[in-house]
Amino acid sequence: MDERVDPEQFVALLTANQSHSRAYVLAIVRDHNHAMDIVQQVNIVLWQKSSELTDTSKFLPWALTVAKFKALAFFRDQQRDRLVFDSRVTEAIADVAVQYVENLSARRRALRQCLSRSPERHRELLNDRYVKNLSIANMAAAAGKTTDAVNGLLKRVRRALLECVTRRIASSEASH
Amino acid sequence: MDIRDTPQGTDHRFDRLIELLERTTDHPSSVELDELNSILTEESALHFAAQLLIDESLLREDMAVDAASELLSEVTASLGDAKMPVELPIPAVVAPSRVSETPRRHRLHDWGILLAALLIGVVGTLCYQAMTGDHSQANAARSPVRSFDDERVAAPTSRGPVPRLVASTGCVWNNSDSRAPSVGQEFEGGEVLQLIEGIAAVELRGPDASRGRVRIAGPAGVFVRSDGFLGLQHGILLADTRQQFGGFAVDTPAGRISVSALSSVGIIAENGSVEVHVFQGRATIDSAVSTLDGVAVRGPTGGASRSNGSRRQGEMTSEGFGVVAAGEAAKILQPASSEPTIEQGIASYARFGAMRSMAYDQLELGPEYANAVIASKPVVYWRFENDGELIENQGSRPGIDCRLIGGKSWRSNESNSSLEFGLTEQAGFMEGSDPWPVVPLADYSVELWAKPSHFQQSVLLCLTGPQLDDGRYPHSLILELGGPYNVTQLSPPGTVRFLHRVPVSGDYYDGSSCASDAKYTVRKWQHIVARKSRENLELLIDGQLVASATDDNHLPAGTRIVVGQLYPDAALRPFVGQLDEIALYERALTDAEILEHIKQARIGEPVRDSI
C-alpha cells in the first residue's frame, strides 16, 4: 500500500489504538495523569504527521514509537522529585512493555474473563483503587481496616489477577 | 518472560514490587523509590512491573463502564430534580435542534475536535466490549421475544427497517468496529453503537418508506438486532413513531418495550432498572406481562401492593398489565437476587433533559441586565448583541475586543442574542484581541452565561500563556466543564471546575482548583461566576456557592483570553452549546452584585414541543 491513509481511516486507527498508547505510556511514566497528558501530545504528533503513514498495518508500531519518545521527553523535562522511575528503568521498561502492548486485545479478553470470576469484594477493591482513585489510607479508613491489611489484600488480588491473565493468554496461544 | 518464569525465591520480592508500585501513587518516600528502582534492575522484575502497569491501565478503562453507569444515575436523578413542568403538553413535532446541520463526516476532519474526543474517549475505551456480544445474548435469553404481529404493535414489515444515523450533536463514539459513524451511515444487524457523549438520532426506515426515529443520549450503548430494530443496553433513548411508522420494539435488559404507532416514548436503562416514560401514544412492557406473577407493583403514591396473575388488567396502569399509557411511567427493577418489581409513576420530561431542544430554555437579557453589569464596572464586557466577527468591549479597559473565529451561530429572541458553538461544521471559539490582565491581580471575577448541549469535557474560558516548545499552551486560569467520564482526578465528571494556576503552567498538578459538588444542567442556561477574593477561590452557579479553594497568588498579567476551547490554535476540549454575556472584573464581585445580575436576567417560559 503506497497511498495516503484517508482522514476517516486515520481517525479510526487513532481511536482504535488509544488503549495501546495509554497502557504503554502509563507503564513508562507510572502516573495516570501524566500519562493522559502525554497521550494527548502523542495524538497531536500522530495527526500532524498523518500524511507520512501509508501502511495502516504499521500504525501501532509507529504510535508506540512516538509514545516512547514523548514519554522519554517528559522524563527529561520533569523535575526529578516528580518521577517514579530513574532514567535507566524508564528506558528499560519502555523496551519491555512493547511486547505486552502489542498483544493488548488478548490481554484485555483474558483480564475480563479473570475479573468476571473474581469475588465481588475483590472487584470492589480494584474499583476503589483504580476508578475512584482512592488512596490506600482512605480505603482502609472506609473499610475499618489497617493500611497493612488493605495493602496485603491488594497485593494478593493483583498478583492473582496477573497469574490468571498469564495462564489464560498462554492457554489461548496454545490452542491456536 | 512472564510471571510463570518467576523463580520461587523471588515471590516475596515481587510482592514488594506490587506494594511499591502502589505506593508511587500515594506520595512515596525517596527511600521507597530507590528500593523500587533497585528491584527493577532485574529483567524479570521489569517484565512483572510492565504487565502490572498495563493491566492497571486496562482495569481503569474496563471499570469505567460501571463509573459511567453510576454517572448516568446521578445525571438522570439530577434532571429529575430540576424544576421542569411535568404537565408540559405532549409535543407534536420533533424538534431536533440544529443537529441535522452538523454532519459528523465533516466534523471528523477537524483534528482538534477529534483530539478532544479522544481525550474524553480514552477513559471510556473498551466500554463497548464489556457490553457487546455477551450482553446482547443475555438480553435475547432473558427477553420473551414477542412477534411483531402482536395486536398492540403494528407489523413493521417482513424485512424490518434499516437503521441509519441522521443527526449527530457533539457525539463521541466508541464502536465495535472502531469507526465513528458518519451521518447517513446505515447500520447492520449485530452492530453495537457505544455513544460516550453527545446526542445521536437514528432513523428507522421501512421498505415501504415508513419512518420512525430514535434519539440516544450518551453515555449509552445500543445494539442493532438482526431484524433492524434496536436494543438499549444502557443509557437514555427516546423512540418516536409519530411520523408514519407503524410501531416498533426496543430490547432492554428488562425485556422488550413495544412502542405503539403514533407514540413518543422515553426509555432509561441503568443499574439494573429500566424506566419507560410515555409522552404520547402508549408502550407495552412485554417482559412484565410474561413474568408478572408475584411481582410487586407500586402505585404512584409509593405504597406497594403485590400483584399476581389473577389480577385484572388495569391494576398496574390505567390501561392494563404491562401497558403504559400517555402521561404515565413505569420503572422495572430487576435485582439479581430477587424478583422483579415494577413502580408506577408519571412521565417526566425532566428525565430526558438532554433530548430537549436547545431552544427549550430562553435567556432574556434586556437593558436592565446590561446596566446592572456595567454598574459593577467590568473591565471586559462582551455582549454578543451584534453579529459581526468582532465584538466590541463594553467594559472599562480600552481594547480587549472579542474576535470570533471559526464556526458559530447566533441565537436570538426578542430581547437577547447569544452565540452557539459546536453545532456547525467547523469548530469555533473566541479570543481577546489584547492580553488581560494588564497587571497582576489579587482579586478578580469571571462571569458568563452558559447552556451546554450535553455533558462534555470542554472549556468555557481560559487564560493562556505563550506556547511551549512541545506545542502546548500553559494556563493561569481555566473555567471548564467535566464530561460524562472521569478523565482526570482533577476534573470530576459532569461538574464545573475553576482552576487558578500561578505561575502559568501546563502541569496538571500546578495551581489550585475547585469543582462543583453537583452536576451542571444540560440544555439550560446557567449563570456562572468564578471569583478570587484575596486567598479565596469561589465558584458560584446561579448565585449559589458550589465550590471553593484557597490560593493567595496573584493572577499574572499578559495572558490571552480564549473562550470555547483550551488552546488558541487547536480545538481541544471544545465547548458545544451556547454562551452569552461574558464579563471580566479586576475585583471580586460581591454576592449582592451577583444576585442583582441574576435578578435582572429572565429565563423565558419553556418553549413547548421541546422534546
Low-confidence stretches of chain B: 1-9, 65-158, 288-320, 606-611
Assembly state of the chains shown: heterodimer
Strand content of chain A: under 5%
Uncertain residue segments of chain A:
none
Rg of chain A computed from alpha carbons, rounded to a whole number of angstroms? 19 Å
The N- to C-terminal Cα distance of chain B equals 57 Å
The major beta sheet of chain B can be summarized as:
14 strands, mixed
Number of helices of chain B: 10
User: What's the alpha carbon Rg of chain B, rounded to whole Å?
Assistant: 26 Å
Question: Given the structure, what is the number of helices of chain A?
Answer: 9
Coarse structural class of chain B = alpha+beta
Shape call of chain B: globular
Summarize the amount of helix of chain A as a percent range: over 70%
Q: In whole angstroms, how far apart are the ends of chain A?
A: 29 Å
**Tally of DSSP β-strands of chain A:** 0
Structure characteristics:
heterodimer; A: 176 residues; mainly alpha; globular; B: 611 residues; 8-stranded antiparallel beta sheet; disordered N terminus
Short description:
With about 180 residues, chain A is mostly helical.
Notes on the protein architecture:
Chain A has 176 residues and is mainly α. Helices cover 76% and strands 0% of the residues of chain A. Chain A has nine helices and no strands. The mean pLDDT of chain A is 84. By secondary structure, chain B is an alpha+beta fold. In chain B, the strands form four sheets. In chain B, strands 1, 2, 3, 4, 5, 6, 7, 8, 9, 10, 11, 12, 13 and 14 form a 14-stranded mixed β-sheet that branches. In chain B, strands 16, 19, 20, 22, 27, 28, 29 and 31 form an eight-stranded antiparallel β-sheet that branches. Chain B has an eight-stranded antiparallel β-sheet with strand order 17-18-21-30-23-24-25-26, with no helix packed on it. Chain B starts with 10 loop residues before the first helix and ends in an 8-residue tail after the last strand. The relative contact order of chain B is 0.12. The interface between A and B is large, with 68 and 71 residues.
